[in-house]
# Entry
Amino acid sequence: IAWFFLRKTIVNVFPDSGIHHFTLSILNFFEATIIYIGKSVIPVQQSVMPLLQNTSISPGIITLSLIGFLIIRFGVRNKAVAIFGFAWFLLYICIPVWAAATNNSEHYEHRLYTSLIGVLIIVSQVNLKVNKKPAVYLFAALVTIYSFKTISRYPIYENAMSFTIAGTNEAPSNSMLYMLLGNQYDLLKEYSKAVSCYTKAIALKPGNTDYYARRFASYTYLEDYGHALDDCNKGISLLSDQHTLNSSKLVETKGLYYLSRSMTHFRLAHFQLASDDLQEAIKLQCNDIPLDYPA
# Structure
C-alpha cells in the first residue's frame, strides 16, 4: 500500500489491470534495470528519449558479469556497505523505471544521477589489491573517456532541431520524436518535411489523434485539401472511439476537428458539408470559430 501511494505522488498513471500487461511490465522493469546498470558503467547507446526496443541489454549483462566476477574473485571489504550500495541503486531507480515500464515510455538516462552513487559504493567495496600507480592511470583513463563522451554529445543539445534529429536517429521507435521534429519543420515552413515526420509518427502510433491534427495543418499550408480532409475524417473517427481522454477534453478536441473539417470543406467548395460541420462544432461549444467565417 505504501508503495502504491508513493508511486501515485510521483506519476499519476496506473498500469492496465490485465495479467498479461502486468507480466509484460515486470519483464520490461527487469530489462530496463539491467540496461541502466550497463549505462552506469559503459557509456554507450545514449539517447535523448530511449525506448527499450531501441536499446541493447548487452552492456548491462557485461557490467553485471564484470562486477560479479570481481566480487567472486576478490571478495568485498564490507558486505553491509556493499548491500547498502545495492539498496541505494534500487531505491532511486525502481520507481521511475517501473513508471516507464508500465507505460512503455522513455527510460531517461538522467535518472542515473542519484542511483549511480549506489553502483560506485558497490565497486568501492570490491577487495581489489592493486598498485597505486596503475590505479591512478586507470582512473585518469576512465575520466578521459567519460569526459570525451560527454563533450561529444554537446552538439545534440545545441537547439531543438539538433535534439529532435538526434532523437529520431537514436530512438527510431519513439513516435513523439517524429512529431517534435515535424513541429520544427513546421516552424521553418518546410511543410513537406513536416508531413513526412508526422506520417512516421502516425505509422508508429496510429491511434494518436494529435498527430493527425498536426499533419492536417501541414497539408492545409501545402493546400493539399484532399489529404487534409482525410486526416480530419480519421481524427473524428478515432475520437468517436476514444476512452482515454476526459469528457471535457474529448469534447474540445472533437469540436476543433469538426471546425477544421468545416473549413476544409469550404476551401473545396463543399458549402453544405462545411455548414453541417460548423453546426457540429457549435454544438460541441468550440470557441475557436473565426468571427468572419462565412460557412
User: Anything to note?
Assistant: The two ends are 56 Å apart (CA to CA). Confidence is low (pLDDT under 50) at residues 3-17. Residues 79-103 form the longest helix (25 residues).
